[in-house]
């Protein structure tokens, strides 16, 4: 098995957890990240956790020259492409930055991969490509429609990947559509470290629990859901990390040369949901977090957030059938590990 993987964005939240899972599964990892939304400290901690120094290259996926040097000096089985910007609100204010970074960066990466005949890619897509779903649970054949530039940049990349496989059938391109990743490594050493006031629910709750923020605003209590608050498919980041290992194992199995050593199969463009298949409401999450952390989470109901949808949860059947992967961890596990990370690192990776 050729087992070296380039992990773009590997210093980030999901990437750092995936590096550990990859190492444990026998893959060798090279991280490529411009640290625009992450810290070198995350890589140091991953290295400590796995007992081995991770090879780290500080670089931008839009830098073709640097990427060429990296591909020339390593023989990669494939690439996991996490590198991207992910703040929905910022994408509305800075659409060109988001298209340039997320779509432009992916095009540059694919061009260099083609030059070096590395044709296996696992791309970080998002449930956001489904927009406001007509049918729940959401399966991979559901209509795709985005409402903001961040989502459009992900959908654009999916179209690019699809078109590429039509033009050349030697590509194997898996788009993993993540639902709502939360939680942290059980060691409490790595986790989500938002730069500013968090936009997302779980980091907001944990910063209220630790006393950095006063009160959670719950955006709307009049949705047609179990208790009026939004429902999402929260998935533990370590389960998500295992989903990437399963995707690579699948690519390895599918693209392995045939017995006579000639034919190689490819999988084309393959979109796969990574979710638990279960929906949890905002109030349910607050209640479980409060229970496992022993902290009170003060909250108030405010207006709905523009662009939000009532409910979103995955059909997780395709991942189970094709990748033989399913999420294992509960909402209580997600809250417990978030709290462990937050209480051990009240300032995230900022050690000062
Ligand atoms: P993150 O910001 O923690 O990680 C992304 C990493 O990419 C960061 O380390 C950042 O420094 C790096 N990066 C950004 N632009 C780069 C560039 N041009 N060149 C090199 N490195 C670059 O985010 P995350 O939560 O770990 O998300 C990883 C991927 O998954 C992203 O593509 C994101 O859009 C996608 N995703 C995230 C979520 C989520 O809720 N966290 C949900 C669905 C999809
Ligand atoms: C979840 C629920 C909010 C914060 C976002 C992106 C999506 C994907 C995952 C990348 C909703 C409510 C939130 C708060 C609240 N990322 N909420 N108070 O919006 O489902 O998805 O992250 O691909 O693209 O849009 O996640 O965590 O922001 O919100 O009441 O302070 O929590 O209204 O119902 P979302 P979220």
Structure description:
With 352 residues, this protein is α/β, with parallel strands linked by helices. It has one domain (4-344): NAD(P)-binding Rossmann-like Domain (Rossmann fold, 3-Layer(aba) Sandwich). It contains 11 helices and 14 strands. Helix 1 runs parallel beside helix 2 (40-50), helix 3 packs parallel to helix 5 (95-115) and helix 5 (95-115) runs parallel beside helix 6. The longest helix is centred in the N-terminal third of the chain and has 21 residues, at 95-115. The mean pLDDT is 96.
> What spatial order of strands do you see in the largest sheet?
3-2-1-4-5-6-11
Distance between the termini: 43 Å
How many structural domains can be distinguished in the coordinates? 1
User: Which overall shape is indicated by the principal axes computed on the Cα atoms?
Assistant: globular
Largest sheet: 7 strands, parallel
Entry summary:
The protein is an alpha/beta fold. It is built from eleven helices and 14 strands.
Which features does this protein show?
single chain; 352 residues; Rossmann fold; three-stranded mixed β-sheet; 11 helices; globular; binds UDP-4-deoxy-4-formamido-beta-L-arabinopyranose
Give the SSE map.
Blueprint lengths: L3 E5 L4 H12 L3 E6 L6 H11 L4 E4 L5 H9 L5 E4 L6 H6 L1 H21 L4 E7 L22 H19 L4 E7 L1 E3 L18 H9 L6 E4 L11 E2 L1 E3 H19 L12 E7 L5 E2 H12 L5 E4 L8 E2 L4 H7 L7 H14 L8
Parallel strand pairs: 1-2, 1-4, 2-3, 4-5, 5-6, 6-11, 7-10, 8-13, 9-14
Antiparallel strand pairs: 9-12
Helix pairs in contact: 1-2, 1-8, 3-5, 5-6, 7-9, 7-11, 9-11
């Amino acid at each position: 098995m050729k087992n070296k993987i380039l992990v773009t964005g590997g210093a980030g939240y999901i990437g750092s957890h995936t590096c550990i899972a990859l190492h444990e599964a026998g893959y060798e990892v090279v991280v490529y990240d411009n640290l625009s939304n992450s810290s070198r400290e995350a890589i140091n901690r991953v290295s400590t956790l796995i007992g081995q120094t991770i090879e780290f290259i500080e670089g931008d996926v839009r830098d073709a020259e640097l990427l060429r040097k990296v591909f020339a000096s390593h023989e990669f089985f494939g690439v996991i492409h996490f590198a991207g910007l992910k703040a929905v609100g910022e994408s509305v204010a800075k659409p060109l930055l988001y298209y340039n970074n997320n779509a432009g960066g992916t095009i540059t990466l694919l061009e260099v991969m083609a030059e070096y005949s590395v044709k296996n890619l696992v791309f970080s897509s998002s449930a956001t490509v489904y927009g406001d779903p007509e049918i729940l649970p959401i399966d991979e054949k559901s209509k795709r429609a985005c409402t903001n530039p961040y989502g459009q940049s992900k959908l654009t990349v999916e179209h690019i990947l699809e078109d590429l496989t039509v033009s050349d059938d030697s590509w194997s391109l898996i788009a993993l559509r993540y639902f709502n990743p939360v939680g942290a490594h059980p060691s409490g050493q790595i986790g989500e470290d938002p730069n500013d006031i968090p936009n997302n629910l779980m980091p907001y709750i944990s910063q209220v629990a630790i006393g950095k923020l006063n009160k959670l605003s719950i955006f709307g209590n009049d949705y047609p859901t179990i208790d009026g608050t939004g429902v999402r498919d929260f998935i533990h980041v370590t389960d998500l990390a295992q989903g990437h290992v399963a995707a690579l194992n699948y690519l390895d199995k599918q693209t392995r040369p045939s017995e006579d050593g000639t034919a190689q199969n490819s999988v084309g463009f393959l979109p796969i949901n990574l979710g638990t298949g279960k929906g949890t409401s905002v109030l349910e999450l607050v209640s479980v977090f409060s229970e496992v952390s022993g902290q009170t989470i003060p909250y108030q109901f405010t207006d709905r957030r523009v662009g939000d949808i009532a409910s979103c949860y995955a059909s997780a059947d395709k991942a189970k059938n094709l990748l033989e992967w399913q999420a294992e961890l509960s909402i209580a596990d997600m809250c417990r590990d978030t709290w462990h990370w937050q209480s051990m690192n009240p300032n995230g990776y900022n050690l000062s």
